[in-house]
Amino acid sequence: MWGVLELTPPTRGAAAIASRAAAEGSWRRRSAGRRPERGEGGGGRGGGAETWGGAEAAEAPEAGAEERRRGAGRRPEARGGGGGAGRRRRRHGAEGGGGTGQSGGGGGAGWGRRPARRDCLIPGIKHVVMNMSKAASQRGHGYHARSNEPWTRLTHKERKRQWFAYNPRTMRPPPLSSDTNSMKILSWNVNGLQNVVESGFSADALAGRENFDVLCLQETHLQASFGASILFIYTTSFCFSYGLWERNVDHFKNLIQNFDDSYWSCSVERLGYSGTAVISRVKPISVQYGLGIPAHDQEGRVITLEFDDFYLVNAYVPNSGRSLRRLNYRVNEWDLCFSDFIKKLECSKPVIVAGDLNCAHQSMDIHNPQAKTEAAGFTVEERQSFEECFLSKGLVDTFRKQHPNAVAYTFWGENQRATNKGWRLDYFLASESIADKVHDSYILPDVSFSDHSPIGLVLKL
Fold first, then answer.
1. Which candidate among 86, 160, 174, 387 keeps its CA 20 to 30 Å from the CA of 266?
2. DSSP string, 27-79
3. Residues 6+ apart with CB under 8 A from 429
4. CATH 3.60.10.10 domain position(s) in the chain
5. φ and ψ at 194, to 5 degrees?
6. Are 439 and 428 in contact (CB under 8 A)?
7. DSSP, res 260
8. EC number(s) for this protein (predicted)?
9. What stretches of 216-321 show up as alpha helix (H) in DSSP?
10. Among 348, 340, 409, which Cα is nearest to 378's?
11. What class, spelled out in words, does domain 140-460 have in CATH?
C-alpha cells in the first residue's frame, strides 16, 4: 500500500530573499494604494514579512515605507499585523502586530502563500499526510521537536507556589553505569495497536531510542487466534469476520526484533476491545493471565510476569465510562479483587504494577480539577478507592515519590496535547520493599502516536 507524504519546502537563503525583495519592490510601489492581500507585509514586527520565502520589508525598507504611510489610517485586518509584536499564525504562520491577541493588529504579515506540494511515495503507510503543520506533526510524526514542548508549560488551573511543570529532559537522573544490574520497563496505552502502527510508529525505533527490556501495552484492541489465549476457557463460541481478522495478535508477535517473548490477552466479551500485551527480551519464570476470577477476566485486562526478584503486573483498569455507568463495578468489585490479587503475589515477591489505572489520584494530576469532579477518572469514589485499595496497602506511586511537586500528564483529550490540558492516568506502583530500588520513574510526553504517552521505570536489581 502506498501513501503520499507532503514535505514542507526548505527555507530560502538570504540571497534568494534579497533578490525576491528587489523584484517585488516595484510591485509594492505600483500597488501601494490598494487593500493588502494575505501574505503582504506592512509594519508589523521586523517590518512585516511575507511567509514562505516572500519579500521582507526589512530587506527593502524603501519599498514598504510608502505602503505603511498609506495604510496608517486603514482599519486593521483580522489576519494582519501592524505596529506591535503579534502572535505567529498557525498555518504557515507569519508574524502580526498591533497587540498580542490571536488575530494580531493590522497591516502586518498575513498567512502567506501556500507552499508548493512535494510528493514522495512511502511504502507501508496507508494515510495521506496533507499538512506538516504543528497539529499534523503531533498526530502524524508522533514525536515532538524540542522547539515544541507544551508539557514544559504549567497550565494547571490551581497553580501552587511549589508546583512546576515536568520536563523529562532536565529532571531525570543520570543513567546507571553499564556494570549496574538493572531492568528498564516501559508501559504505554496505545489505544489501538494496529492504528498506531499504521500511523507510522516503529516499535524497533522506540526500543533503539529507549533501550528498554520490557514493554507493557494496554488497549491493544486485538483479536486472539483460536486457542491462543487461556482466557478462551471462559467462553464457548467464537466469531471472526474478515474485517477483524487483520487485528489478529499473530500479526504483531514479532513487533520488536530480538524480543522473543511476547504475551497477549484479548477481550472475548467484546471483540476488538481493551486488551493487554507484554513484550520482553528477558524470559520470565512464569506468566499468568487475568485475576483468576471469570467475572473479571473477560476483557483481557491483566497479564502477570514473574521474574527473579519481583512480579510485574501489566493492568488496564476499567474506565467508569460515560455517565459513570461502570463506576459501581469499578470501585466495589474490580478494585477490591485487583487489590487482593496483588496482596497474594506480595506474599512471595515484591510487585510492580504498570499500566493505565484510569484514575487521576490528586488534584495536581489533572489540569482543571474543579470542572472534572463528576468525570470518570476523577470522581471522589475512584480517588478514594485508589487510595484505599493500593496506596494505603503498601504500594508506592513511584513517579510522585520522585517528583512530589511536578505537574505532569500522561493522557490528553482530543486537540488538548498542544495546550497541555491533560490527566495523569498511567502509573508504576511498587511494593514498599522494592520502591527504594527505583532509580528513575519518568514520562515520555514527546511520543504522541496515541492519546497517552509512554511511561518508564528503571529498577536496580
1. 387
2. HHHHTTTSPPPTT--SSSGGG-B-TTT--BTTT-HHHHHHHHHHHTTSPPPTT
3. 352, 353, 357, 390, 391, 395, 396, 397, 398
4. 140-460
5. -65, -40
6. no
7. -
8. 3.1.-.-
9. 242-245
10. 409
11. alpha beta
The verdict on whether residue 219 carries a ligand-binding annotation is yes
Across 272-310, where does the E strand assignment appear? 276-280, 286-289, 302-306
**Catalytic residue ranges:** 316, 356, 452
Q: Is 198 marked within a binding site? A: no
Q: pTM higher than 0.70 for the full model? A: no
Return the pLDDT at 248. 86
CB 138 within 8 A of CB 379: no
How far, in Å, CA of 118 to CA of 10, rounded? 11
DSSP-based three-state secondary structure for 187: strand
State which H helix or E strand residue 388 sits in: helix 380-389
Dist. CA 427–CA 357, nearest whole Å: 7
Of 315, 322, 412, 316, whose CA–CA distance to 367 is shortest?
Answer: 412
Residues 6+ apart with CB under 8 A from 93: 51, 111, 112
Q: Where are the beta strands (DSSP E) in 82-128?
A: 119-123
CA separation for the pair 419, 398 (Å, rounded): 26
What residues pair up with 278 in beta bridges, in sequence order? Answer: 216, 263
**Residue range 423-461, pLDDT digits in tens:** 999 999 999 999 999 999 999 999 999 999 999 999 999
Is 451 annotated to bind a ligand? Reply is yes
DSSP 15: H
Q: How far apart are CA 119 and CA 116, in angstroms?
A: 10
In this prediction, residues 259-272 reach a mean pLDDT of: 94
Q: Is the pLDDT of residue 236 over 60?
A: no
- Answer yes or no: is 436 a known binding residue: no
Residue 149 annotated in ligand binding: no
Dist CA 304 CA 315 (whole Å): 9
What does the alpha-carbon distance between residue 458 and residue 438 come to, in Å, rounded to a whole number?
6
